[in-house]
Amino acid sequence: MSTPTTNNLIERLFSAGAHFGFKKSRRHPTVTPYLFTSKDGNDIFDLEQSAGLIEAAAAVVNEAGKNGKTVVFVGTKDEVSKIVQTTAESLALPYVTNRWIGGMLTNWSEIRKRIMRLESLMAERESGELDRKYTKKERVMINREIDKLNFNFAGIKNISKTPDLMVVVDPRHDFIAVQEASDIRIPVIALMSSDCDAAKISHPVFVNDALQSSVSVVLGELAKAYTDGKAQFVPKPVAPRVPTTSSDSRPRRPRPTA
Asked: What is the pLDDT of residues 146-190, one digit of tens each?
């Protein structure tokens, strides 16, 4: 039975056009149970089910916030990249919105080296070290490298390990990200339309994944859930280190006198 909160979410989804899927000819078979009907050849999502999926995904994100887990937001489509970035930045969470570089999850040690290179070059530029150490031509090349590294890694440069959860908009478009998450068993919440494969996603959310208004409603719900969860997060106390006594520092018995 729908609650007032759920009904409000359904109304907002409807107003945002979240119920519009793609042409029936593009439908993936796994999406069929989540459809309400087809109209003029276009699939229409059952928004009551979609609202339930959003609430389930929000519960997962809320739990991640409570436990201090890291959630990475992914959305490289032009239509949604800015919304994804804005949402992640508002939560101080990592994001990938320009391009997914192969190995971002499965080859994290190498990706981390590139991030460290970016940090090093940025520090040298800010301190004026680049001006002192390199010629004008060399600085031009280095600045180009910084721009490229920023383009690829700016959204994830502040994390030191692989994330615990992924939120992706259109898993069909960012299929490499989804595959890497699956390979290392990172759960995936996906905002997905009728052309996506639900079998590959841990927590699917069926809405129009191309309309900014639709994506904004869902990401807003997830952001609120994470914020509420993070407010309850209590870092685990670090146990004090007990100094160990080396064998050389132990008191020695006096030797018997003759």
From this structure: 999 999 999 999 998 899 999 999 999 999 999 999 999 999 999
What Rg, from alpha-carbon coordinates, does the chain have?
25
> Distance between CA atoms of 74 and 127, rounded to whole angstroms?
32
Report DSSP letters for 97-131, one per residue: -S---TTTTTTHHHHHHHHHHHHHHHHHHHHTHHH
Give the residue-averaged pLDDT of 102-123.
93
Reading the block at residue 48, the tokens are 């009551």
Question: For residue 199, what is the DSSP state?
Answer: G
Answer for the pair 210, 80: CB distance below 8 angstroms, yes or no.
yes
CATH T-level fold of 107-157:
Helix Hairpins (1.10.287)
Domain boundaries for CATH 3.40.50.10490 within the chain: 8-105+162-230
CB neighbour class for 242 (10 Å; exposed up to 12, middle 13-18, buried from 19):
exposed
Region of residue 221 (left: phi > 0; alpha: psi -120 to 50; beta: else): alpha
**Short-list 200, 219, 5, 203, CA closest to 97:** 219
- CATH of range 8-105+162-230; options 3.20.20.220, 3.40.50.10490, 3.90.1010.10, 2.40.110.10: 3.40.50.10490
Whose tokens are 């359904």? That residue is 10
